[in-house]
Amino acid sequence: MRLSRLSLVILLPTILLLAACQDAGAVETLPAALRQHCLRCHGAKKVSGKVNLVKSLAAKPGGLASDLDLIEKMIEVLSDGEMPPEDEKQPTKAERDRWIAELKRVLKHGLANQPCLARVPIRRMNRFEYNNAVKDLFELQRDPFALPERIVRDIGGYFKPATGKVPPFVIVGNRAMGKSQFIGTGNTLPGVSAFPKDNRAEHGFDNRGDHLSMSPVLMESFFSLSQSILNSPKFPLHARAWKTIFVAPDGMPSAQQRAEGKRRLRVFLRRAFRKDASKETVARYHQRFSQRLDDGTSFTESMKAAISAALVSPRFLYVYSGSGSQGDAKSLDDFELASRLSFFLWNSIPDVTLLDLASQGKLSDPKVLREQAARMLNHPRLKNFCDSFATQWLQLDLMVSAVPSDQRFRDYYFGGATGKIYKVGMHMAIEPLLLFETVLIEDRPITDLIAPDFSYQSDLLRRWYRHDKKKGRAEVVGIRFNRVPIKQPRWGGVITNAAVMTMTSSPLRTKPITRGAWLASTIFNDPPAPPPASVPKLEDDDAKLQKEGLTLRDKLKQHVTNPECASCHKKIDPLGFALENYDAVGRWRETYRTNLPIDSSGTLFNKHAFQDVIDFKDAMIAEKDRFARAFASHLLSFALGRKLDAGDGPSLDRIVANSAKDDYRFRTMVREVILSQSFTHSSSNGVESH
């Protein structure tokens, strides 16, 4: 919801209403105040920003007090300085703080007294999780099928989180943009084809429960996929668990084979279904195994039949997160908690250690949970988290489809007889991901994601940033990235890198609105509303725009005339134009192509004026608490596999407050996410219990 035109005067009477109508006189004057100052834009004649106060006030029971998401949004826009609008009289800081505090009190009261918000109780594994789960179940030494979503391929073995340090240089590849690295069977099982990649939710991740459906066609695909994996000719060679699951000892009598098959199935089903398998469950799969033996099928093929059936069971394909029903907040049982923890940090199934602790009822102990989080953060499987969360958070999948003009940016393409086989974007996309992994492995403050004093860059990238067209290394598979100091603040970080600049540009020019929307969504977790379909497009070629003697910023001012559009543009335009000194492929420039000056000045959150991107970064660091909350929101949403709502607010408050005590270090924030009530419970009443 947007509160773009909500005026100052609504706040005090609204708070009076929320405070249980203690002042009858104030309530009697409320309708007149609303008609005079707010209802014209919010319910009486039109509904601006999708906020209908008439409808909210008329709702029973509780009126506006029952709309917790709206109250939370009111707190947010007050805190961000978006409300009151610029053309209204502004409150003093003391008044603003008092209103925010009162609204928070009302929100807390509402959360404590409303029934718990419903949660998604079950979701399907996405393609990435399925791959990892199968890989871990059989101890496969390669991915079952090609996964271009793993952008950074660790060729040199640098990813060792237990060391707490990333080496001075790393050897990597780009799976998504270096075609030879994932097409074919070199790093996968021959004969295995994956089902389509699951799409990211809008402003979210590809593990959202409300987006992961299961159709009969997809179920058929899962069955075919399980068969193709187990029957791949290379499966026995690359599965370390091949002998312990599928091969019977030589000379074992038939009766002993039955018993041995049952024992192995019990062990396997516990891993696959992420909980102790009941006698009935084991018996069902053992019956399938035994029938094949009775038909004269070998032990190996009989086990394949039983296990391929397990791989299409809902107990394997679905991740359970409690009942999700309304009522009192319900703690996850220990097995559900083990799954939530492993799918968060490893994007895969729990290991034996987690399952054993769950069997003993110990995992839900906060001390044990903290210890397991620390152990898992030091495990090599943490690479799955980096491959999935970081890429989606930064939306770096957009780099694959970025196509700068090969006439204007000819040097963006290289390789082969035509010089157009590969893109410099192959190197660009790796830089912010290596920074992310380093901040996590070395447990640095998350502010290093914005303004670090180092980066990892290839020789090609360093030349790119310097506009150096001399020939040098341009590796495709084994790319060496060196750790380099960042002495000029305009470089480095997940914002000011060539990948983000390129993927938020058109083939011919920068797109400040797209960049601003990316910053609002990714860095501040405050995505703008989509533009109306009727909005005309600007000229794609900035050279044509500038022939009029106007910069892109000048033209956009003429372009945005609709007041409804202007409210959003006031918010996102300063963010986008702060990055305007970076051209459409991420290189620094002082002027446009026609020598018109670039204006990158603006104001952040209506209180931090900046003249250039260096000032802008300083302003962001000054607002590090806001960035920390936004980043924590992304982490928590990814961990839960759902969109957050007002009921998660208290958990976020606790995550941010506890992380601040440790300078917002990355691992501390991850640990606090895991210890939060939103994570350990299937639903929340907004009260943190530990």
Could you characterize the architecture of this molecule?
There is one protein chain. The protein has 690 residues and is mainly alpha-helical. Among the domains are: 8-113, no CATH class; 122-147 and 182-319, no CATH class; 508-611, no CATH class; 627-680. 45% of the residues lie in helices and 5% in strands. It contains 30 helices and ten strands. The strands form four sheets. Strands 2-3-8-7 form a four-stranded antiparallel sheet. A two-stranded antiparallel ribbon has the order 1-4. Helix 16 (366-377) runs antiparallel to helix 29. It is globular, with a radius of gyration of 28 Å. Mean pLDDT is 85; it is low at 1-37.
Task: Give the helices and strands, then pairings.
Elements: H1 11-18, H2 24-37, H3 53-58, H4 68-79, H5 93-113, E1 122-124, H6 127-137, E2 152-154, E3 169-174, H7 216-230, H8 235-238, H9 242-246, H10 254-273, H11 279-294, H12 299-310, H13 314-317, E4 318-320, H14 334-345, H15 352-359, H16 366-377, H17 383-393, E5 413-414, E6 422-423, H18 425-428, H19 430-441, E7 454-458, H20 459-465, E8 479-485, H21 498-503, H22 512-523, H23 542-546, H24 552-559, H25 563-577, E9 602-604, E10 608-610, H26 613-622, H27 624-640, H28 649-660, H29 666-675, H30 677-680
Antiparallel strand pairs: 1-4, 2-3, 3-8, 5-6, 7-8, 9-10
Helix pairs in contact: 1-2, 1-5, 4-5, 10-11, 10-12, 11-12, 14-15, 16-29, 22-25, 27-28, 27-29, 28-29
